[in-house]
Design goal:
mainly alpha, globular
Amino acid sequence: MKSLWVILRRELVSFFVSPLAYVVITAWLVWNGVVFWVLTEFYARNAVASGAATPLSAFFGGSSLFFIPLLVFVPVLTMRLVAAERQSGTIEPLMTAPVSDTAIIAGKYGAALGIWAVLWAPTAIYAYIMSQHGTVDWGAVRASYFGILMLGSYFMAVGLLMSVIAPNQIIAAVLAFVALGVLFTVGIGEFVFDGTAREICSYVSMWGHMQSFAKGVVDTRYLVFDLSVTLLALGLSIGILQSRRHV
């Protein structure tokens, strides 16, 4: 357990002392600020047509503007986790240190999830701003952030797996983008197919996932999917790392 925390702390420190951290955080906040402004303007001008939807429900997964940056930022955040170690040659000392593969993967994953939480924390100010100009369903807001955390849990796990597989950071980012892009595209199938195919696509759907949580509904189907993909990706990451240790 101690080695896990050492690796987690090491990853967080290495991220936040690098220029990449501040480029990513700044770009992320600028994007979300613009998206929130656009949504509030749209709903202010189309209050009747918008029905029960609100800028906050749209911001938390009710529009494609929520998902576009995730397919870009997540690969950028996760590409360095293991691939950068391999590229720089620091993976060898890490693999020969008295640290288990499980601790390495768990520590790096914990750091990635911590960074994910840091990215989203400042967006809570949007809910506060809305509360100053109208009524906010704080239960739905809390559920939305919980949904974001669960979505991030498997996003980061998939990104970490791609970083373990890839020989360098660029390939890791491309693989993570493709993997998450495929999952996003499969989810859109719920609007295209019927019958069993529609049910499967609905189960995978990121859109359905966030729309449910944005309404304050914690759907256990999505929780099971998130946790299943997370555990599968982390298990594969540990297995691949172990196989390379014995090569």
